[in-house]
Structure formats: C-alpha cells, structure tokens
Amino acid sequence: QVQLVESGGGLVQPGGSLRLACAASGDISEVDVMGWYRQGPGKQRELVADIFSGGTIVYEDAVKGRFTASSDDDQNTWFLQMNNLKPEDTAVYYCNVLILSRSYWGQGTQVTVSS
Length: 115
Description:
- The strands form two sheets. Strands 2, 4, 5, 6, 9, 10 and 11 form a seven-stranded mixed sheet that branches. Strands 1-3-8-7 form a four-stranded antiparallel sheet, with no helix packed on it.
- The chain is 0% helix and 57% strand.
- The protein is mostly beta strands.
- The chain starts with a strand and ends with a strand.
- The chain is globular and about 40 Å long.
C-alpha cells in the first residue's frame, strides 16, 4: 500500500511563494509518474506538473516559469516550489503517483492566494 501526505499549503499574498511537499510511504520503487494536480473552487481537477521516471518534467502552461517540481529520492518526497503566486492559483493541491498502472492520491493541501 502506498500513502501520500501533502504539506506546505497556506494563505499567501499575490506575488508570494509557497513550497509544497508530498511525502510517500510504502512500496514506491516502481513509480512511473508523479504528478501535482489542483482543484480550484467550482473547477475540475487539473494537472499542474508531471515528473516522469526518466526525469522529464512537464508543466501546465499557466504555471510555466513560476512553478518548479522536484524530487528527493532519498527522502521519498516530491516538492512543488510555487513563486509569483496569483489569485487564480487558489486551489486544493494534490499529489498523485502512478505505480504499475495503479493510481494513488494524497489528501490535498489548501493554497489560498489573496490580499
């Protein structure tokens, strides 16, 4: 069984920064893709960034140049550094991993961007 726990959300003013973390436990030796997703108020869940097992990282257009996804394999933790945050980035952020065709989700962490 795989468990994911997100942390690092909070309230930040426009232009500010936050760093989200996703800590994984369980058998994660065969992760194919790790993804950060978000779901804003009244919106569908959308992909923010994908980290593929070969190291390729793909970002959603709206966050390119502002968000950076990374991983610490020794700590089994993934990160999402979010800079120059905008009100439209307000959402619950989730991490997801795909392992041998099975998908696992964290519980989400709230990010609110407001003055």
